[in-house]
UniProtKB/TrEMBL annotation:
InterPro entries cross-referenced by the UniProt entry: Bact_Lucif_Oxidored, CmoO-like, Luciferase-like_dom, Luciferase-like_sf
Domain Luciferase-like: 17-299
Record-stated family: To bacterial alkanal monooxygenase alpha and beta chains.
Name the UniProt record assigns to this protein: Luciferase family oxidoreductase, group 1
Organism (species): Bartonella tamiae Th239
Lineage, highest ranks first: Bacteria, Pseudomonadati, Pseudomonadota, Alphaproteobacteria, Hyphomicrobiales
Gene Ontology CC terms: cytosol
Amino acid sequence: MVYDLSLLDKCPTEANKSGAHALANAVATAQAAEKAGFRRYWVAEHHHSNDFASSAPEVLVAYLLASTRHIRIGSGGVMLQHYSPYKVAEIFNVLSSLAPDRVDLGVGKTPGGLPHTTKALQSEMHDETRMNFEEKVELLNQFLGGEEVKAGRFEGLAATPRSETKARGFLLGASVESAKLAAHLGWQLSYAGHLNGSDKKLKNTVSAYRKATGGGVPLLALAAIIGRSDKEAKERADQIFIYKIHFSDGKTYSLLTEEAAQEFGALSGRHDFTIEKHHTQIIAGTAETVNKTLHDLHNQYGIREFMLELPATSVEERIDTIAQLAYAQEKLAA
């Protein structure tokens, strides 16, 4: 086997089904991924959403750890701008103590919801003490494992319990800056190829990460659709779009519908934005075609692990896709 397969699950809610049903589907999907030999299973964070049920990945991670035996379980990711690094470290130190060497902590800097959701999540924060993302992730890294912070305003403070094997850190991003920050932290970069499909950006980021780490390679997150034929899969992929809202200060956010992008702009209280419609970056085809594409990326960039997002909302289809991908990979490696 030349590379591992992993799964990113947004816990989609099927039409006319409850959030509880979606979370039960997540358990079934994680168990299927473990049975198929996938290396890790991550759950996303989305707030105030009727489409996705994973608003508290740290809670779902705990349940999934108890519902599986050996697959690594993690967050993809915790949206750190909303939380105290101290508390996030406490949570993942507890998880790592309960399930040693099975916990991944993926951290991202997007809001995971619309501006009014962000305001609710950050209602207790104050401007005079607010840290930027880089400062927060640096502090989080110090708290992980339960050791006392050595310096700064939190000197002497520890996020208990102390964990013998602390959660493995992953920085979710798609830029040279993210590559350098991940390397500085001693974390692995998870490149968001499912949101940023530029070949040039991927090449530059992989190169920067390899240089900063002395040979390290990021994990590559991608979206994939499996069909009975390449034509069928590509037709389905062509129906899926992403909407990017660009603000004049250079900040860009990706949303799943034009309505959500318009609402994001309106609720931000700003008028200096534009919205662009893009095809999402999806690998589409039969399981054999998708695995060949992954194999080519492995050879081109040295990628050793792919984190796959499956846009399908049906749990049966996602479980079937997992089985097909694992089988096709075995055939390719034979």
